[in-house]
Amino acid sequence: MQRLRGTVLAAMVVSSVCGSARACTVFMAAARGEVLYGNNEDWFDPNSFLWTVPAANGQYGRVYVGFGNGFPQGGVNEKGLCFDGLMVPRLEVANTAGKKVYSGNLIDKVMAECATVAEALAMLDQYNLRMFERAQFLLADATGDAAVIEAESVHRKEGRYQVATNFRLSQVEPGEAPCRRYQIATRMLEENDRITVDLFKRILAAVHQEGQAATQYSTIYDLKRGIIYLYHFHNFTNVVRLNVAEELAKGAYHAAIPSLFPPTYVAMVHAGAQPDPIDEAIRGTIDKHGVDEAIKKYRFLKKHEREYWRFEEDCLNRLGYALLRARKTAEAIEIFKLNVEEYPEAWNPYDSLGEAYMVNGDIDLAIAYYEKSLGLNPGNTNAAEKLKELRAARRKAARSPSMR
Q: What is the pLDDT of residues 268-287, one digit of tens each?
């Protein structure tokens, strides 16, 4: 299945996650009639976006923020239900018996159909949450209720505020959070009993990240008034203030977040300094010298020039599909096989390799890799559908006189 970056990360120890480049900070607080929610989105990609999904067919309108893959990293709906997601170490999800598998974006379903945290938790309790084995998210609503949702546990807000970063609350003792960003945000919320936009802005500034995976954008949601305060590239001097109802009334639109702000030198330098994706480095080698030489080059660059290239699952996946479109199926298979080798715990490389074998007419191999993908992600409806087609094709071939 072709896709862009999702929200997955290889398993690692908790302390290294909180100090890693792939970091975000989310928090909320409710006091004296105010309910605010803040987020720093830390990532490599400078191409961030804001978009709207107006109300339709009984669903609530929502405003989302994220990147070019169209997958909402965070957002708020017209009722004041808000969320943002965070990467965490992989945790095997065992509590799946009797749970339904949702075939689409479950978070979007929650935002479209739920007005409160209580409603969202009731909905999520019906579903297999294995899709969140490497992610968690903080939900909050306009009443001041909030909860951190892990794949197998829920942590309801106690007191005035709640904070989440890149470790699982279920794996640490209370008061022993291993993440500095979590500690800073918690301390600042504890020391200030008045909940204001200025306080949240100061917290976001205190926990923002720089370097390759910098804070690309920040948001403060006023959940009672339906206001979004949007900031670009950890610059808290310039703000875009959005009224949720007014934005939804404009209809569906999609806007690049950097375009909403005056340019800043540091953001321009960051955007220009990002390493190029590795698929750009080896595509020409495939055309000139073949896929084997390209794979050798990939391994050399990963060992000796890793800092100059971006090595991610989606880079190889994108290259494999480019080769499929160019009718270089054998080469595509080798690239997808490399992706499976590089990311053995990710479901999507197996799905893509299954598709390449299907295109090549290798039904048994296609079935094997689609089955592997579905085993890693039971919510992969593409694999389930392809398996039905392939198994039917295999049965038909077995009955054919030419095959006897």
A: 888 877 777 888 889 889 99
Res 12: pLDDT: 29
How far does Cα 134 stand from its chain's mean position?
10
For the CA atoms of 122, 126, 127, 128, the dihedral, rounded to the nearest 10 degrees, stands at: 110
Residue spans per domain, the chain: 14-271, 276-403
Spell out the residues 6+ positions from residue 37 whose beta carbon is closer than 8 angstroms to its own: 26, 27, 28, 76, 82, 84, 138, 140, 219, 220, 221, 223
CATH superfamily of 276-403: Tetratricopeptide repeat domain (1.25.40.10)
Nearest to 71 by CA among 44, 93, 53: 53
Edge to edge, what strands does the sheet with 254-256 contain? 154-156, 146-149, 135-140, 82-87, 72-77, 62-67, 48-53, 254-256
pTM of the model: 0.72
The CA-CA-CA angle for residues 375, 383, 332, to 5°, reads: 105
Q: How far apart, in whole angstroms, are the C-alpha atoms of residue 189 and residue 404?
A: 73
14-271 has which fold? Penicillin V Acylase; Chain A (3.60.60)
Strand partners, 64: 51, 75
